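Q: What changes when beta-D-ribofuranose is included in the input?
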Amino acid sequence: ARPVIIDCDPGQDDAIMLLLSMASPDELDILGITTVAGNVPLALTSRNARILCDLAGKQGMGVYAGCSRPLVRPLVTAEEVHGKTGIDGIEITEPATPLQSRHAVDFIVETLSAAEDNAITLLPIGPLTNIAAALIKAPAIAGKIREIVLMGGAMREGGNTTPSAEFNIYVDPHAADVVFRCGRPIVVMGLDVTHQVLTTQARSKRIQDLGNPVAQAAHNMLAFFDRHDVQKYGSDGAPLHDPCTTAYLLKPELFKTKACNLQVEIHSELTMGHTAVDFWHVTDRPKNVEWVYGVDSDGFFDLLTERLGRY
Ligand code: BDR
Ligand code: CA
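A: The predicted holo structure follows.
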């Protein structure tokens, strides 16, 4: 199984990503789950990650709390999408999975430092603060990274937080800038692809019909998550952003990607956090990412449903 570290800010779509990942031990060896401030403040994302470990029956998983605010800018959260708890839709109780005392950035630095070159895959699905802080603290860890598969950014779709910017990149554009310059292979799941992965009622019902408690919890979270987009945009259901990262590792053939240059806007207040993707190769800037622009969304939901059926 491929060793991975998941860096998250749950968030219902983060929650589904965690459940999908923890249901896939043949492919993924989860070394630890690190949390960051994003959808809700750090104390809540850290508690939520532990609730998800409880739900998946993985109380032994190492969960490490990281940075409580972005590198430069003040924290922006998204309770209007995710609810006050971050994972509205399920019952919140004090988790049995403990919070580790080590800081997430130290966990990332120490785990990567002890690894072989090219060994570890990072799966960031929130603002990139922890990953950037680790790269700043210990630049030599870059060589230990096999690949970064992250959720963030937007090109054709435009932004979901400002007209120009997607939430994860908008919240910490300076961190994103550090990560996109790290020189390692990066696969980017932006809104161009995640907006193709909609949790329609039929898809959510298939998950509920699996009949196990984890699938029921997933369905309940999705029902809450959906209502925001259905009410605001009149869409069929909410985009399941974060699980696209794990799905890519499990079944890359579901996705269409193109090697591109990507740079993050960190100067203009108007377009702060915009991801400038050179999709048509109109510059000779180095190709630093695989930009994902297409997905077989039925195939994605077949995979997710099959994995949730394992609980
Ligand atoms: C991203 O922002 C968060 O609200 C979601 O969890 C996802 O990671 C989508 O823009
Ligand atoms: Ca997220």
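Observations recorded in class: Residues 149 and 187 are 5 Å apart (CA to CA).
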